[in-house]
Design a protein that fits this description.
351 residues; alpha+beta; four-stranded antiparallel sheet; 54% helix; rod-shaped; disordered N terminus
Length: 351
């Protein structure tokens, strides 16, 4: 609403000035016509003077009216030493409807955020064609960097910006300074660092340096965006080959590890079988030892029993004889047993 009112007031004064001059010309024409006819024009002369004064006043006012938009600041240069001994006013015009002395000039500067893009893709940046930044890393590799710089004029320093740069600050300050700083900072990193672990560090270093440089030249750095990093074709091929070699090495390492695992598994199986055999042999040996100890104990007990009862051995001997032996001769003090002859009667079948 304020913008519309301010513009309407400026337009109103300009319209009134035009209308006043038009009225002045009309009245002057009428006076000249009446004078040519020798008719009195005393009242018209007073009107003509009044319209002239009004037209001049309105023209002066309309010529000095300047409207400054909210995103702008105005730098006034003046030829009048009584107003501007240095040739410009010390205070910039702030947003709103302002008035300057006719003959002075207002230079408008935007304080809105602006973006300057440098890109390899055509149509993305301020310049047509490939506008990426060509730089060399500390290991001598060539890289191409796409970047965007978001900045704005410092509202409190637009007068200094006008004195030092005028309207050239975008191309001669933002562009050249950004490209130079990006090259300088990139040269402090290796290419492997730029594309992997140190990319954020690279972006932060560029941002800090740009921020200091812009502040020295009456600009405010809002943000620095590292859009993309390209490589030369030779390096891209080398990287691809390296990746293939690394993948092959990883595959070979996987095969070796797999074979090692299989060998370890076989060793563990063999170790298990060997341990099982040892345990089984140890168990069998322990069992035989226990059995032998039991047999020895039994024999000792038998020996003790035989010494106390000698006939017991003979009894055991007889009990172990074959079942077909019915009667035996047992001579006294003889270690041998003799079976008796067959005493049975053989029946003779009569014819």
């Amino acid at each position: 609403m304020k913008l519309e009112v301010s513009v309407n007031i400026a337009t109103l004064f300009q319209g009134l000035a035009s209308l006043a001059w038009f009225g002045f010309i009309v009245v002057l024409g009428v006076i000249l016509v009446r004078a040519s006819r020798q008719q009195p024009a005393k009242g018209l002369t007073s009107l003509l003077i009044g319209i002239l004064v009004f037209a001049v006043v309105i023209s002066v006012i309309s010529a000095g009216i300047v409207f400054i938009e909210p995103n702008q600041r105005g730098v006034v240069t003046s030829p009048y030493s009584f107003r501007a001994p240095k040739g410009y006013l010390d205070e910039a015009l702030i947003p709103g409807l302002r008035w300057i002395v006719p003959g002075e000039e207002v230079h408008i500067y935007t304080i809105s955020r602006q973006t300057y893009t440098m890109s390899a893709a055509s149509g993305e940046g301020q310049l047509a064609g490939d506008d990426s930044i060509r730089a060399r890393t500390k290991d001598g590799q060539e890289v191409f960097i796409d970047a965007s710089v978001i900045f704005q004029a410092d509202p409190t320093k637009v007068i200094s910006l006008h004195i030092n740069w005028q309207d050239r600050y975008q191309n001669e300050l933002v562009r050249s300074t950004s490209r130079g700083i990006i090259r300088d900072v990139a040269s402090q990193y290796g290419i492997e660092e730029i594309v992997s672990s140190q990319r954020a560090s690279l972006e932060n270093a560029i941002t800090e340096t740009l921020n200091e440089k812009f502040a020295e030249n009456d600009l405010v750095l809002v943000d620095f965006i590292l859009r993309d990093i390209h490589f030369s074709e030779e390096y891209a091929v080398a990287v691809e080959q390296k990746q293939i070699a690394e993948q092959q090495a990883q595959q070979a390492k996987f095969v070796v590890e797999s074979k090692k695992q299989e060998a370890e598994q076989a060793r563990q199986v063999a170790q298990g079988l060997a341990d099982a055999a040892v345990i089984a042999a140890q168990g069998e040996a322990d069992a035989r030892l226990i059995q032998a100890e039991a047999e020895a104990t039994a024999l000792e007990r038998i020996n003790t029993a035989i010494q106390d009862k000698p006939d017991l051995l003979l009894y055991q001997y007889i009990s172990k004889l074959g079942p077909n032996i019915d009667v035996m001769l047992l001579p006294n003090d003889s270690p041998f047993l003799f079976p008796l002859p067959d005493t049975g009667t053989t029946e003779t079948e009569l014819p």
